[in-house]
Design brief:
heterodimer; A: 267 residues; mainly alpha; B: 323 residues; mainly beta; Methylamine Dehydrogenase, Chain H; four-stranded antiparallel beta sheet; 1 helix
Chain lengths: 267, 323
């Protein structure tokens, strides 16, 4: 098989994901409502009108809305990554993934294509969110909107891969509620998305270290720095490393012959 | 006609270019450290810290920019610093506890508020003699001399008045009642209007100078911040006459007021307890001193955005800039 075949397959997967996105506009809206609630309601309730202390990459005092915006961008990617990965596991038994996996193209390529396709769709949602946040007064440098693109893409693939690995491996995560309670919430809250880590450290040293080992923290910081036209080398290294590791693990775990789930019986 | 219209903007453009090429400096008085921080306006780095008298607050430049006058409040003197050598070359007899002062356009007479003595002391900066001491209200604070040199206006924090002093006779001629705790006064460039901030009253009064009557009173309101925290102190008017910037103290914001409509255009978030302000020589930036957070915030005047905040000493109070 040559490169053209692989590209053809990639194209097909992306196109299919795109059409699905077009048809599920309500899902697009609901994915936007969640971070917007956080931005408009939660951040307002936090009352940080007097400013959040200066931490890099910010050069001056910022509002709490400005602080949490990058974390909320990653929240969109987190929910989408987990949701799509879970549906991929089901799809393996009964849906389109089953058909797709029958093709002679390697499973790894198909899965990566799928992860990238989901990531690209998620990016549209993130940019829609950034647009609305802009109106709400969160104004990063305009060039930052471009600089953040590769960071967002990497983070989206990482989160998709983590989701795929976990949902293929752990039987208990059989529905979205399980994923939400045991993956999304801990990852989101034990990170720098909602509060700077120095603040976390003031209350608990071990919570701080858990946050430090959470790849989501570094994903948020990578996006935060990129949005303000700075490169956080450590965050990039950890996010890229985690993406590579979890993609390999996900491909290994996503073996149709070793299904951990029984296909639902339909009568 | 066309050239006349264009000339000011051409000159402004030329000035912008030339001053950008020069290394502009800002001097910031640090009330708790008894020092001045010297800030490079191109690199935004503090390049020097100079020891001065106790509790330096108000600072002002001589007209040629070669000397810096410093109110060393707890040393009960106004110090004169030679900026070429950064050495104190004289101590002026300022009266007790000098806080704010203003230099007459003649570059000689310095009008100094003596907070504890309810006096305004006038000192000749060349002979170092006290020319007059004028009794004003309780706790005099803000001080400004009109651009034509005719008026010296002092604010008294407890009497809540603006005191109009005739600079020819050094007599108190008139008083204008304003809201509680007036802190600062600033003349418009043409001398026709005077802006006065009232810290506890939470307002800024705009006073017509010929009639000495208040023609407009401005109120401020920031979502999420208790009205008690909104305490206007420093006021600066932009060189193009478009905006007035009002430092709102513990509200940590600078209000931007449209000087035509008197509407607040925006509130800009800066450091904690913002006090006084100064434009850079090219008028591109406005620097604010933030007492509690111990830093200076830099506001881009054209797009009304706070670009950065730079750590200086403890409790920065006053700021001046040189080209």
């Amino acid at each position: 098989m040559n490169i053209a075949t692989y590209l053809h397959a990639f194209n097909g997967v992306v196109k299919r994901e795109f059409w699905r996105f077009i048809q599920q506009r309500s899902r697009f809206l609901s994915a936007l409502v969640r971070p917007l609630l956080w931005l408009v309601v939660f951040a307002a309730g936090f009352r940080a009108a007097l400013g959040v202390a200066i931490i890099p990459p910010y050069q001056t005092y910022i509002t709490y809305e400005t602080y949490i915006a990058p974390g909320l961008c990653c929240m969109i990617l987190l929910f989408n990554g987990m949701q799509s990965s879970l549906s991929m596991v089901y799809d393996r038994e009964m849906g389109s993934m089953k058909v797709l996996l029958m093709s002679p193209i390697s499973r790894a390529w198909l899965l990566i294509s799928k992860l990238v396709a989901i990531a690209l769709i998620s990016l549209l949602q993130v940019y829609a969110f950034i647009g609305i946040a802009w109106v709400a007064g969160v104004e990063p440098p305009v060039l930052g909107l471009l600089a953040v693109l590769p960071a967002l893409l990497l983070v989206a693939v990482m989160l998709g891969a983590i989701g795929l690995f976990l949902s293929a491996r752990i039987k208990q995560l059989e529905n979205f509620a399980g994923v939400m309670n045991f993956v999304i919430f801990p990852m989101f809250f034990l990170s720098s998305a909602l509060y700077p880590l120095w603040k976390m450290r003031e209350s608990s040293e071990w919570l701080y270290w858990i946050c430090q080992y959470n790849p989501f923290t570094h994903a948020v910081e990578l996006v935060r720095f990129a949005l303000y036209l700075e490169l956080n080398g450590q965050a990039l290294a950890i996010t890229a490393g985690a993406t590579a590791l979890f993609t390999v693990l996900a491909v290994i775990s996503f073996n149709p012959e070793k299904s951990v789930r029984a296909a639902p019986v339909r009568k | 006609m066309k050239f006349r219209a264009l000339a000011p903007s051409l000159i402004a453009a030329a000035l912008t270019v030339s001053s950008y090429a020069q290394a502009g400096l800002a001097y910031i008085s640090n009330e708790k450290d008894d020092t001045l921080s010297v800030l490079d306006l191109n690199t935004w780095q503090v390049i020097d810290t100079i020891d001065v008298g106790e509790r330096p607050r108000g600072i002002i430049l001589s007209k040629d920019g070669s000397k810096l006058y410093i109110c060393a409040s707890d040393s009960d003197t106004v110090q004169v610093m030679d900026l070429a050598t950064r050495k104190i070359i004289a101590n002026l007899p300022s009266g007790a506890d000098p806080e704010q002062f203003s230099l007459h356009p003649d570059d000689r007479k310095l009008y100094i508020s003596n907070e504890d003595d309810a006096l305004v002391t006038v000192v000749d900066t060349q002979t170092h003699e006290v020319l007059a001491q004028i009794e004003v209200g309780v706790e005099p604070e803000g001080m400004a001399v009109s651009p034509d040199g005719k008026w010296a206006v002092n604010t008294s924090e407890t009497t809540n008045m603006l005191h109009w002093i005739d600079t020819e006779t050094h007599e108190l001629v008139d008083n204008t009642l304003v809201d509680q705790r007036p802190r600062h006064v600033e003349f418009r460039e043409d001398g026709q209007l005077l802006w006065a901030s009232s810290e506890i009253g939470g307002t800024v009064s705009v006073v017509d100078v010929p009639s000495r009557q208040i023609i407009k009173k401005l109120n401020f309101e920031i979502k999420g911040i208790h009205p008690d925290k909104i305490q206007p102190v420093g006021v600066k008017l932009s060189a193009d006459g478009k905006y007035a910037f009002v430092a709102l103290g513990p509200a940590n914001h600078v209000a931007v007021v449209d000087t035509k409509s008197y509407e607040v255009v925006d509130y800009l978030l800066v450091g904690r307890r913002v006090w006084h302000m100064e434009f850079t020589p090219d008028n591109q930036y406005l620097l604010t001193t933030n007492g509690i957070s111990g830093d200076v915030s830099v506001i881009n005047v054209a797009d009304l955005k706070v670009e950065r905040s730079i750590k200086v000493g403890r409790y920065p109070w006053g700021v001046v800039t040189t080209p």
